[in-house]
Amino acid sequence: MNTWMSILPPFIAIAIAIWRKEVILALAVGIFSAELILANGHPLIAFIETAERCVDVFQDMGNTRVLLFGLMVGALLELIRASGGVSAFVERLSRSGWTQSKRQVSWLTSIIGMLIFVETSMSCLAAGVVSQPLFDRFKMSRARLAFLVDSTCAPISVLVLLNGWGAYILGLIEPEVSASPISVMAQSIMWNFYPLLALAMVAFTATTTRVFGPMKQSEETLNIVGTEAIEEPSKSRFMIIPLAILVLGMVAFMYYTGEGPGNEIISRIMSGSGSRSVLWAVTLSTVSTIILLRIHKRFTYPEMVPLSYKGMAALLPVVMIMLLSFAIGAACKELQTGQFVSNIVGDFLPAFLVAPLLFIAAAVISFTTGTSWGTFAILIPVGLPLAYSMGLNPSFTLAAVLGGGVFGDHCSPISDTTIIASLASGCDHLEHVKTQLPYALTGGVVAILLYAVFGLFM
């Protein structure tokens, strides 16, 4: 369609989410409005196509694997929690002296997120699961935890490109550049201002333990209502072994599903399938956890079945949000929402404003579609040829697209990474979006100014 009407569905969904604080309702209405446009205003056809759009999500095997991953994570987390493994691990950390203050706990969360850079979902999950009880102990809100997890894991993935992000971006830029694609991608890291600023804000928050805006209100509310109790400590291995299997399994499966010479380990991991790897890893970890708990006689198998269902049920709303996010993303693709936004920006591009406007375009596309990877696929083939035609540094231009995509993701309530960060932190999704937004906007505005200033000298 590629008209102004193509941007209405995502904006309708986001407006309703902010107004009614009901993400599932907002996404459903957004999908219906997209189908209404595609059906030329026929409401019955739009209603039918809305249902079919959700069914069509399962035609994409990657989407289906991510949805199953969400359910399996719920089962795994509940088994780990109920076993007392998390509280035992926290008790062990407390005795070691590594978690004696808010500062230490905050830095622990960020360091875990940085170390597991191979896959964003895994780093969010590991950092969130370990940190939840620690944040409760020091009366820090889950919103603060979600911010630290989200603003560490996604930015580090786009800066340390030895992962699926790097392989994907490399594949997009290879047809568009005349120089070495790896060199262009590597040199973009120093110009990727938003992720660097996001990590700087994480470091500031972790070091000073100070929070601002809506997040400060979340902290005050927490101090009033208190926190819920956790399970009695048992054995820390009930948490360490499942998470180790999860992370190591993820890396191994990324290598197994990757392509390239057998002796080039990093190359194969970078080209591996993220959706396959996360599902296989979490399934292996869940099965291993069941066996581990049975061997140690912590639970019988009949006791673990309802616990698994309880965990799945707890994450069912999040899985539903993912499903509807995939559906509205597909509808926006058919409406050509991303192309419309990029065409608007393409009409107003003085040389020194190329990078700032590409950053803004990437942010808007990512915000409205909920996917930074989809944004990269739309704008990298637009931005890099434009950079060459205007004599600009391709790495500088690439960094603007990558940073804008991550920025839009951080601001969007329909972003998969934002949803997973909420899930991993045990935080209400809309509260996470609301409390993170002032930090993300601050970083975004500063990044735009930096691109404008450096653009004058490129």
Low-confidence stretches: 223-229
- The end-to-end span amounts to 36 Å
Tell me, briefly, the overall form: globular
Would you report the number of β strands?
0
Largest sheet: none
Question: What is the residue-averaged pLDDT?
Answer: 82
What is the CA-based Rg, rounded? 22 Å
Q: Helical amount among residues, as a percent range?
A: over 70%
**Number of helix segments?**
22
**SSE string, helix = H, strand = E?**
HHHHHHHHHHHHHHHHHHHHHH
**Main structural class:** mainly alpha
Q: How much strand?
A: under 5%
Compact overview of the structure:
The chain has 22 helices and no strands.
Give the tags.
globular, mainly alpha, 458 residues, 78% helix
Describe the structure.
The protein contains 22 helices and no strands. With about 450 residues, the protein is an all-alpha fold.
Protein topology:
Blueprint: H1 8-20, H2 23-38, H3 43-56, H4 61-82, H5 85-96, H6 102-115, H7 120-137, H8 142-159, H9 164-173, H10 181-187, H11 193-208, H12 214-225, H13 237-257, H14 265-270, H15 274-295, H16 301-335, H17 337-346, H18 354-369, H19 372-389, H20 394-411, H21 416-425, H22 429-455
Helix pairs in contact: 1-2, 2-3, 2-16, 4-15, 4-16, 5-7, 5-13, 6-7, 6-8, 6-11, 7-8, 7-21, 8-11, 8-20, 8-21, 8-22, 9-19, 10-20, 11-22, 12-22, 13-15, 16-21, 17-18, 18-19, 18-20, 18-22, 19-20, 20-22
